[in-house]
Amino acid sequence: MTRRLAVVAKKVGVSEATVSRVLNGKPGVSESTRQAVLSALDVLGYERPTQLRGERARLVGLVLPELQNPIFPAFAEVIGGALAQLGLTPVLCTQTRGGVSEADYVTLLLQQQVSGVVFAGGLYAQADAPHDHYRQLAERNIPVVLVNAAIENLGFPGVSCDDAVAVEQAWRHLASLGHERIGLVLGPADHVPSARKLAAVRAVAGGVPDEHVARAMFSIEGGHAAASRLIDRGVTGFICASDPLALGAVRAARRRGLDVPAQISVVGYDDSALMNCTEPPLTTVRQPIEAMGRAVVELLNAQINGGQVAAEELLFEPELVVRGSTAQAPRT
């Protein structure tokens, strides 16, 4: 019992005496702290005291498309930590190829009577994907927040990094280095964030040739294949829609015997973990994950507590982080 008190107290950041008061139903503890202690019991796998077992844990689904791209674990850590501080228990739902689908996860979460759901990347960002499971959530008035660029008319609040500003920063950086043949490695054509990036480049650059735009799955392998096509078309500066795509572009250049950044410059997107440790360190556009994650939880918690939240998108400012993967364009 003493060990359990210590572990739970450390998890929540309160004293063992406070945990003891919660477990014994004693007064003198705020409701938020009480809920945080109960959530910690559930997360740590401890059985609740008999008198507290009738209270359902306040669960929040955190649905991610994958964990291979380090940006998604980063969002999960920030959002999950902020939820726990409010006494909400995050339930991580990660899709795998051939495994549980996003719609299946929604069904499971509804069965668990979740208090809300956060989607950080998913089918809501693809115009041609099925969206019936989102309508299920809306019909049941389940609080939902979407991270990064959803299709229109879903009716949920969203928190996004400003794709237009991000790609403008990347384009102007490469142009200032003398690159005239700049290409884009983007996601599928129906992917909303990629569509926004392409529209922004066309606005800032006065148009970009179709042959300088390549589509790919969001992976190193996808980036490699797409960048290889653009290298064949004479592109020397690459703007990529994710850091893994950018690493694929670096690999494609090297497989062709081209030096990065002396001959090929590459800009990523996200500034996910370890991008300053790659060779060369990756120039990328940083998403403000901490600020975005806190906003997500604030929006969700407001809905859970019965508040009205506008179904609009909050846009956060990105930051260009210049490292070693970009340099002056090669002389022709």
UniProtKB/TrEMBL annotation:
The keyword DNA-binding applies. The keyword Transcription regulation applies. This is LacI family DNA-binding transcriptional regulator. InterPro entries: HTH_LacI, LacI/GalR-like_sensor, Lambda_DNA-bd_dom_sf, Peripla_BP_I. Coiled coil: none annotated. GO terms for molecular function: DNA binding. Keywords: DNA-binding, Transcription, Transcription regulation. It comes from the Bacteria. CDD domains: HTH_LacI, PBP1_AglR_RafR-like. The lineage of its organism: Bacteria, Bacillati, Actinomycetota, Actinomycetes, Kitasatosporales. SMART domains: HTH_LACI (SM00354). It comes from Streptomyces hirsutus. Residues 8-57 form the HTH lacI-type domain.
